[in-house]
Specification:
Shape: globular
Helix content: 25-40%
Distance between the termini: 43 Å
Number of helices: 5
Strand order of the largest sheet: 2-3-5-8
Order of helices and strands: HEHEEEHHEEEHEE
Strand content: 25-35%
Length: 163
C-alpha cells in the first residue's frame, strides 16, 4: 500500500472540488512510458508548458502527447511577435514545480491557461500532480472549468520518429 500523497496541486484540486483520480507511477523516461505506466493512450497525457510572454507575464499551454504547440498560431492568438520558454530554474521559481512536474493546479500564481482543442474529444486526460511520477486523471471539461482554460486549436502533430 502506498502512502498518501499531497502537493499544492492535489490540495488545489481538492479545494476546488474537482473530481480526479490520483495516479502514482515510477518516474517515466518519456511520454510513451508515462502513458503505459498509467494505462492510457499517449494522446491523453498532457504536458503543461510554461511560456513567457514578457517579464513577469507567463501562461500555461496544455499540449497532448504526440503533439507540439504551433508557435505561429500561439503568437497570433496572443497578439505578440515574441514568446519564449523559461529555463528550468525560472520555471520552478514561477510555478513552484520542477520541470517534468509543472501543472497549473496549485502553481504559485494563477497564470492563464490555454488548452489544445483536441483534448475535448477525450474521455479523460492525465496532467501533472505536482511531482514527478504523480499524475491526476480528470475529464477535459473539468480541467477546462477548473483552470479557466481558453480552448484553441494551437497544436500540430509531432513529426514521426525514425522513418
Amino acid at each position: 500500500m502506498t502512502e498518501p500523497f499531497t502537493s499544492p496541486a492535489i490540495a488545489a484540486l481538492e479545494a476546488a472540488g474537482v473530481p480526479f483520480r490520483l495516479v502514482r507511477t515510477e518516474i517515466a523516461r518519456n511520454a510513451e512510458e508515462s502513458a503505459a505506466f498509467q494505462g492510457i493512450p499517449v494522446g491523453s497525457l498532457l504536458r503543461s508548458i510554461l511560456v513567457r510572454r514578457a517579464e513577469d507575464d507567463y501562461l500555461f499551454v496544455l499540449v497532448p502527447g504526440g503533439r507540439r504547440f504551433d508557435w505561429p498560431k500561439l503568437r497570433a492568438h496572443l497578439g505578440t511577435s515574441r514568446l519564449s520558454l523559461p529555463d528550468a530554474d525560472e520555471a520552478k521559481a514561477i510555478t513552484g514545480y520542477e520541470r517534468g512536474a509543472i501543472t497549473p493546479f496549485g502553481a504559485l500564481r494563477p497564470w492563464p491557461v490555454i488548452a489544445d482543442a483536441s483534448i475535448l474529444a477525450l474521455d479523460t486526460v492525465a496532467i501533472g500532480g505536482g511531482a514527478r511520477g504523480v499524475n491526476v486523471h480528470v475529464t477535459p471539461a473539468d480541467l477546462v472549468t477548473a483552470t479557466g482554460a481558453e480552448v484553441l486549436d494551437i497544436t500540430v502533430p509531432e513529426p514521426s520518429a525514425g522513418g
